[in-house]
């Protein structure tokens, strides 16, 4: 079956001190973390632990061996991605004769960009 997410407990966290910066290799953040909570939240962003729940999607994972090569760091990122599988945002453009644009988008911001570029030109 598909994996939904890797439990956060499986991600080993480095120890936190009041002046911790991120120890993750290649992390470009220079933030000095004031709290363990902020440190953990940042550190976990480096790990893709949430997977697409559509089985045919390349971002879904079948087993733990695919962890790290697929997926998303946050539930929010996964939800944004999954919305692509069922787009529901319709372009509102129509002309005086009732002709409508038939484009459908998964995100409102993409629809607005399309509307400005194509219909307001």
From TrEMBL:
The gene is tri6. It comes from Fusarium culmorum. PROSITE patterns: ZINC_FINGER_C2H2_2 (PS50157). This is Regulatory protein. Residues 89-121 form the C2H2-type domain. InterPro entries: Znf_C2H2_type. Keywords: Metal-binding, Zinc, Zinc-finger. It comes from the Eukaryota. One of its GO terms (molecular function) is zinc ion binding. The keyword GTP-binding does not apply. The keyword Nucleotide-binding does not apply. Residues 68-89 are annotated as: Disordered.
